[in-house]
Amino acid sequence: MHYHAPSRCPVCGHTMEITRLHCETCNTELTGKFTPCRFCMLEEKHLQFVEVFLRCRGSIKEVEKALGVSYPTVRNMMDAALTALGFDEKTEPAADPNEEKRQAILARLSSHEIDVETAVQQLSGLKEEMNDEQ
Fold first, then answer.
1. Which of 45, 81, 112, 120 is 20 to 30 A from 90 (CA-CA)?
2. Domain ranges (residues) in the chain
3. How many CB atoms lie within 10 A of CB 70?
4. pLDDT (tens digit, 9 = 90+) per residue, 2-25?
5. Could you report the per-residue pLDDT of 72-121, keeping only the tens digit for each?
């Protein structure tokens, strides 16, 4: 029988380190300091979620059915697994450098300083500027 190796020390809670590997076929042993893969360090509940998610080919609807839970629960489970894997950094979308200009044009339109045609021309000009920069 094989057991899942603990990833955290039961005494102090720090990350455990693999120091010995053994081949059952030829009885070769290798000692040293080895870092386990990210998935090897997952708690059982996160590993089970990842397995179901992959078996369902990433379909959240299928994961909902397989686990008998709601969409928000699946999302929470996914977020927890991502955090456990170290992928919890949510990347902010790049700020649109023209957003302030766009808002100023819309504010001027709203206050009737400019007409719709002028606003459309100015907004189109911003779009062209952005395309030229790319």
1. 45
2. 40-85, 99-129
3. 10
4. 667 777 788 888 888 888 888 999
5. 999 999 999 998 888 876 655 556 777 888 888 888 888 889 999 998 88
**CA 19 to CA 14: how far, in whole Å?**
15
Residues 6+ apart with CB under 8 A from 29: 20, 21, 22, 23
User: One-letter amino acid identity for 30?
Assistant: L
For 8-68, give the DSSP string. Answer: B-TTT-PBP-EEEEE-TTT--EEEEEEPPPTGGGS-HHHHHHHHHHHHTTT-HHHHHHHHT
Statement: the pTM of the whole predicted model exceeds 0.90: no
Q: Give the residue among 20, 42, 41, 22 at the shortest CA–CA distance from 31.
A: 20
d(CA 64, CA 66): 6
For 56, left (φ over 0), alpha (ψ -120 to 50), or beta?
A: alpha
